Amino acid sequence: MIAIPIDGTPIERLKTLMTILRDRHDGCPWDVEQTFETLSSYTIEEAYEVDHAIKQADYEALKEELGDLLLQIIFHAEIARESGLFDFDMISEHLFAKLIRRHPHVFLNSAVSQTSADQAQLWEQLKEEERANRSGLKDSAVSDLSDIPIAQPALSRTSKLQQRLHFSEDPKALCDRAWENLKNTDSKQFQEEAIGELLFSIVALSRDLGFDAEELLRKRNMAFERNHMNSHA
To answer: Rounded to whole angstroms, what are the CA distances from 157 to 145, 147, 163, 169?
Structure first.
């Protein structure tokens, strides 16, 4: 029987515990079998469960779900350590340096405006510069899209693409055009294209009005579900 780790900080005990669980001889067979790929869907699921707890204002559940999400980070970090790629401390150091770099107004005595809106804009500007440096691009206006996950929910990904590529067409005009195209065709192919264009336009319209299309649809789904349950109560 392996002793339960009791020394060190809570995060140190967690790291030690994951090393024990991943031990090829004395650990848990399920934990040992896991890879980056097999854990990927669990990581996404845990992030959504954190979001759900926040939406429900269930802070006891939020504490638990954040722990489950932290488990995924500890798990991925241990797999990376075993493979000689990086470890949890390297993740932490990288994040520490990034937060310093992304907050020059706090740590570098910069004269940057202190408003929240200005800081959000500065954050995006610094991210673009970092992406340009990683890609070897001299012009940060030329955006690297490789860090926008293909598997990201479509509405969220559309919003991110539009933001990254500085999409600026009139969204209301786009919606009107897509709707007219949809009404005036019986072709399945053109209907498919028109609906796709309409969805794309609605995301642009939501952004133009200061809303998150993914969040709006999530709220509408919840209202639809609630109304359905009430009507069958």
So the answer is: 11, 11, 10, 18
